[in-house]
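Chapter summary example: a protein plus zinc ion.
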Amino acid sequence: MESRGRVVEEQKNYFLVDTNQGIIRCVLKGTLKKVRARICAGDLVQITVTNNDSLDGIITNVEERTSYIRRPALANLTQIVLVATLKSPHLDLESIDRMLFSAEAYGIKPLLVFNKVDLLSDSESKELDAIISLYQRCGYSSLKTSAETGIGIERLKEFCEREISAFSGLSGVGKSTLLSKIFPDIHFRIGEVSGIRGRGTHTTTNIIIHRYKEDSYIADTPGLSFIDIPEISEESTGAYFPEIAACIGMCRFNNCIHDNEPGCEVLQRINSGQIAASRRDHYLKIYSEMKVIRKQYRK
Ligand SMILES: Nc1nc2c(ncn2[C@@H]2O[C@H](COP(=O)(O)OP(=O)(O)OP(=O)(O)O)[C@@H](O)[C@H]2O)c(=O)[nH]1
Ligand SMILES: [Mg+2]
Ligand SMILES: [Zn+2]
């Protein structure tokens, strides 16, 4: 019987495919084996169910993807939930800007979630509101949550509807705790170091996509602090900072990198408070890194 579904887990020799008949354990059709590396969690596939009782099948075809990130290998993500905290761990704007940049370059919509708001004093809450408005001006939506008191959890669930999401953010910001609020029946490791280093003694952890609702999935990606930096030219770095991209064509020099050039529109907007200096600094840092990466790439 033919069916269609989504790969929700990649195991050593099998792919688990979520279909309307349930989870089918599939192998790859011989002719697809050479593209095996390209099939991963999130892929939409056509399958032939070979045994209705044991729920076994064969993947016969893979549909074209709308997005793909290499590490962690995930296909068709539509949303990256960037979890951050003002306190515990301390807010790191550079890591946020790097993750926003990667999400933009991969063409995946980011959502900023500021967790642990229960820990904030009044003045710290104001500080957080200023950060949220900084990102609002770049066009990014934010959500304030507390997995401790439940603030914002219902809204977070709404934001995950009809999306394929992955949670990302520095260790300790509360990704697993938030996921456990969305999926009360699933065990997530909380308060344990799950980063690359901490994973040493464990067997390789699979990337699993949990079905949240019809057409909504959330990827459980242990230790996902950063997603891969995409391979782009350094000149296009600014295109993935929306407020810098908005200045394209407005600087005096058309090859302006918005460093210290005369007649730079970005600098002018920083001076007038429309663009945050921190965003431009992080953009410049990534720009020079992309330059180095590209040089290595050319060698
Ligand atoms: N006060 C408070 N503590 C929280 C909140 N959310 C999570 N925590 C605590 O923060 C610690 C880290 O939470 P985790 O969910 O393990 O963090 P993580 O982002 O999954 O960390 P890694 O898996 O290492 O990347 C745990 O001790 C949680 O109980 C919150 O909203 N408020
Ligand atoms: Mg975790
Ligand atoms: Zn400029």
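Key point: The pocket of guanosine-5'-triphosphate (ligand 1) is lined by residues 115-116, 118-119, 146-148, 169, 171-177, 190-191, 193-195, 223 (CB under 6 Å).
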